[in-house]
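Form 7-S
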Amino acid sequence: MAKVEKEKNSDQNGERSQKAYKGIRQLLYLKELVPGQKISCREVADKLKMSLTPVIQALKLMEIQGFVRHEPNRGFFLTPFSMEEVKEIYELRHLIEPALLPATISRIGKSGMKELKTALDAHVSAGQEPFMQDRLLRNVEFHLTLAALSGLDTHIRILRQLYNLLFLKYGGNYLPVAFTSSVNDDHQRIYDAVCERNVALAQKILTGHIADVKERVLESAEKMSGKVDIPDF
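Output:
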């Protein structure tokens, strides 16, 4: 009986920690927490209407994921903006995303094509929206849909974590609005190459797309001292 009760309490604690984790991610999304900021666990707990324990457990998980650092006797801080981190994220994207395309193209069927087209259209439609966060979210969904169709789960999990860092920690708009049309064009060309089952062409376009965005992101970041927003990915 005691064992059952212990397992029940453990499950409840896990659920609370997950709820706190999702709540903190939402605060990041809404920019209520920003890179470099000291995190008041009490304020976060009050906002989420939770006790301190699940909030601290969630922050420890986010420390492992690279969002947060803990300093003894000082508490938790969001990790600061880092040009090197942004460079590394794009370098990893450059390695992972094009490498998934052969598997995606070999596996994709009619339902997969429909799923990818839906993600493509959603990003194009979001380009007309006034809220940059919506556009970024749809952009991420297009890239992750393309990757997920490969069926290579470990690669996909790593890629999701990279996008989590870009979207939650650095989400925003560094590039001029005019660049959005270029991103849309690249996505359309990638989709067309996948439909044609042309692996080499799809890899070439995607590789160039990632390199182009990386260059523009870093140029903008260097000009905007203290700013931490990143454009369409």
